């Protein structure tokens, strides 16, 4: 019984988050082209893959449900990143943070898709150096 209540509570929280996100205006959009991938769009448009996913809750984890002519949001109001970095083979959180002149904890805090040990960085991923947030 309590696990069912917990599941319903989690679903409600997720639904509220999705509704709240969709109410934040999109300030920059992009029309998907044939052959586009989320990593490719992120790299060419200068947004992190996390920011792209966060701005488009309807895009699934592997980004397999985008299609040509679809208009997606690249950035919502109140979220912008100052600089992005495309991860190269051999990059680590330490090397990325050092190149950006920030600490590893700041890099991790600005990229919620990174785990706390920063072990899930892979080549081709577009990370942002520092997320600038405003209160909406």
Automatic annotation (TrEMBL):
Entry keyword Signal: yes
Q: Which InterPro entries match?
A: LysM, LysM1-like, LysM_dom_sf
Keyword entries, A-Z: Chitin-binding, Signal, Virulence
Q: Name one GO molecular function term.
A: chitin binding
Q: Which residues form the LysM domain?
A: 28-74, 83-129
SUPFAM superfamilies cross-referenced by the UniProt entry: LysM domain (SSF54106)
Q: Which spans of this chain does the record mark as coiled coil?
A: none
* CDD domains (UniProt xref): LysM
Concerning SMART domains, the annotation shows: LysM
Protein name (record): LysM domain-containing protein
**Lineage of producing organism:** Eukaryota, Fungi, Dikarya, Basidiomycota, Agaricomycotina
